[in-house]
Amino acid sequence: MLEFAIVVPLLFAFVFGIVDFGRFFFLYNNLSNAAREGARLAAVSPMSTAADITTTTAAVIAAVRSRINDRNAATANVQLITVGTSPAQTVRVSITAYPFARAIPVLVPASLPTVRAEFRYEYQ
Length: 124
Prior knowledge:
The protein is α+β, with helices and mostly antiparallel strands and about 120 residues long. The protein is built from two helices and three strands. The chain is rod-shaped, with a radius of gyration of 20 Å.
């Protein structure tokens, strides 16, 4: 019984650590896919006027949040950045400081790293 009492906490920490790492990488991959989809949407949307940019930004943020399969999707900090002169040469979507609910607080970070996707602007 004494050996069991010593080994069980280590075993549970190991098992929950594996589960946390799996969830962490799944969510990171999910965020990466959502950012890529949002950047692709921005790359083929009109952005010649300020109204177009506002409409496209709102559509990109809504599309990215709808693609995230997590309960924190509504709080995702999504940014659309256009790089270059008018019309933009590239569009970049980034998701920053996305929270991660951990089972064991020591093994994985509390938030995911920044996820970015960048596409060349293609709207004609």
